[in-house]
Amino acid sequence: MSEAIDSHQHFWRVARSDYGWMGEHVAPLLRDFMPDDLAPLLRRAGIARTILVQAAETEAETDFLLEIAARTGFVAGVVGWLDMDSDAFPERLAHYRKNPFFVGLRPMLQELDDDRFILRPRVLDNLRRVAESGLAFDILAFPRHLPHVAEALVRVPALRAVVDHLAKPPVAAGDLDPWRADIAALAAFPEVSCKVSGLVTEARAEWSLPDLVPYVDHVAACFGEDRLLFGSDWPVATLAATYGEVAHAARALLGTRFGPEAMAKIFGGNAVRFYGLDDGPPRPVGRER
């Protein structure tokens, strides 16, 4: 059985001051979260490695995460940020591709004023460059963005993309539509995968597993065992659950639909393939310096 991989977690140091989305509405997150905080949680949950994902819209954030990856044994790769609506994008992409830990990039579509940002001509040109590079592309979006994302994929069908957090469906309200049809439309593109992550923070405060079932069942049916990836969304998920609770929920919900071999893909093998990871043993874990 392949080692388990968490395909979506974050680190941040608040004093860096480029986390524009943070505020008192997420007060418990307004502290540093670094590798020494996560390492014991991974061990308890049986997770060997992680994908570290950007949480700020700056290249300084990307550099910060790559520095962490270089000295943290369990971090297998970094999904960073680059300005996709910049004439300098090709040069910056070439620069970061030289770093072996740079495995993908993510514009924070959900934070942008323009819901159609991904369809801007220069952004589409740069998406084509990402597709040609073979790097992964993380889609951080709300359900309202999905039709625009689908249109972009029609124009750049070779893009290897993954939908973060099921595109944040309205779990607390219990609504499935129009999210249900729009996520199925994305699943029709064979190069698109989906992260089973981020649901607990979209649910009501006193959430339970049955609240999550319709959403997980839908993406399971749409994407299947080869295009689903487990992600914790730690530490954002701590607003609603512990790391162990998130991992248990994903295993419980997916385990009703998939057998051991498929679960090994969802909890590891698919991340190795999607992000182009070395599937060897993890490097020794050093303490944060």
UniProtKB/TrEMBL annotation:
What InterPro entries does the record point to?
Answer: Amidohydro-rel, Metal_Hydrolase, Metallo-dep_Lactonases
Q: Which residues form the Amidohydrolase-related domain?
A: 5-277
**Which Pfam families does the entry link to?**
Amidohydro_2 (PF04909)
Which residues fall in a coiled-coil region? none
Annotated family: Belongs to the metallo-dependent hydrolases superfamily.
- This chain belongs to which protein, by name? Amidohydrolase
Organism this protein belongs to: Methylobacterium indicum
Query: Upper taxonomic classification of the species?
Result: Bacteria, Pseudomonadati, Pseudomonadota, Alphaproteobacteria, Hyphomicrobiales
